[in-house]
TrEMBL record:
It comes from Planomonospora venezuelensis. It comes from the Bacteria. It catalyses: L-proline + NAD(+) = (S)-1-pyrroline-5-carboxylate + NADH + 2 H(+); L-proline + NADP(+) = (S)-1-pyrroline-5-carboxylate + NADPH + 2 H(+). This is Pyrroline-5-carboxylate reductase. Pathway: Amino-acid biosynthesis; L-proline biosynthesis; L-proline from L-glutamate 5-semialdehyde: step 1/1. It is found in: Cytoplasm.
Length: 264
């Protein structure tokens, strides 16, 4: 039995992905803190929605999907019901396995996960790291849950805050880029809907090329950039405005914020 504690955006996306992957509604328990949310989850997915302690008591795998700021109080609520034969998976930004372990009795196996919102379309990038009491079996069980909803990579926990900044937050940077490019289309007199279509298909096409061609992004970018052409005129402006440096600084700031979240 799998329990998802705190079934919000990420928890619900994982829940629906597990059901799409063949898990039965009877295999999954959800928890929510609002009655209307609990009712919506029951209706939409046919799963049981229980209290956190009830869910923790029943499940072999317990996924913690609340915001980092809510993690300590959730752990205090469920700790008495979690034994060492369970697997606890923490999906929160910044929260270390040591933090989770220190709030649980004994030596409970904990795996830390950072996924991202494309999990809704089975295109997540999830990175996982084992805590002090988790081994190969626990990493495999975590991979079995996450592989149906995207790609999974094992990384050292020391890289988790960096991964959060890169792939956890990553989709937001691309959406921001799309917004900016659509605005540019508007500036050039393009209708908004047409601009959004053009930019969306360009980003999807570029992403598929990047994933499926096996070619380096520099080679792919150079292939678009003709000598004395239009693309280099745009790239020259991006360089003049230090866009690359802005990305380096932005992702470093996201990494640092992840570290702060761990401090509460
Ligand atoms: N959004 C993203 O892009 C990503 C988020 N994450 C991580 O995933 C986690 C969840 O994020 P996200 O899904 O966006 O956040 P949400 O706020 O959508 O989900 C968290 C849910 O937990 C519920 N909740 C809070 N406390 C409790 C409790 N004690 N018992 C039961 N339910 C509770 C909240 O209820 P209520 O609705 O009442 O607030 C909410 O529905 C975070 O830790 C975040 O760092 C990771 C990768 C990407
Ligand atoms: O912004 C956040 O804190 C979460 C974690 C990664 C993506 N969203």
């Amino acid at each position: 039995m799998i329990a998802i504690l705190g079934t919000g955006k990420m928890g619900e996306a994982l829940l629906s992905g597990l059901l799409r992957a063949g898990f039965k509604p009877g295999d999954v328990i959800a928890t929510a803190r609002r009655a209307d949310r609990a009712e919506a989850l029951r209706e939409r997915y046919g799963v049981r929605v229980l209290s956190n302690p009830e869910a923790a008591k029943e499940a072999g795998t317990i996924i913690l999907a609340v915001k980092p700021q809510d993690m300590a109080s959730l752990l205090a609520e469920v700790a008495p019901h979690i034994a060492e034969d369970r697997l606890v998976i923490s999906a929160a930004a910044g929260i270390t396995t040591a933090f989770v372990e220190s709030h649980l009795p004994g030596e409970v196996p904990v795996v830390r996960v950072m996924s991202n919102t494309p999990i809704r379309f089975d295109e997540a990038m999830s990175v996982i790291s084992a805590g002090a009491y988790a081994g190969e079996e626990h990493l495999r069980r975590t991979e079995d849950l996450l592989k149906p909803v995207g790609k999974v990579l094992r990384i050292p926990e020391s890289q988790q805050d960096a991964a959060t900044a890169l792939s956890g937050s990553g989709p937001a940077y691309f959406f921001y880029l799309v917004e900016a490019m659509v605005d540019a289309g508007i500036l050039l007199g393009m209708p908004r809907a047409a601009a959004l279509d053009m930019v969306t298909q360009s980003i999807v096409g570029a992403a598929v090329m990047l994933r499926d061609s096996g070619e380096h992004p520099v080679i792919l970018r150079e292939a678009v950039t003709s000598p004395g052409g239009t693309t280099i005129a745009a790239i020259a402006e991006l360089e003049r405005h230090s866009v690359r440096a802005a990305f380096l600084a932005a992702i470093e700031a996201a990494r640092d914020r992840g570290r702060q979240l761990a401090e509460g």
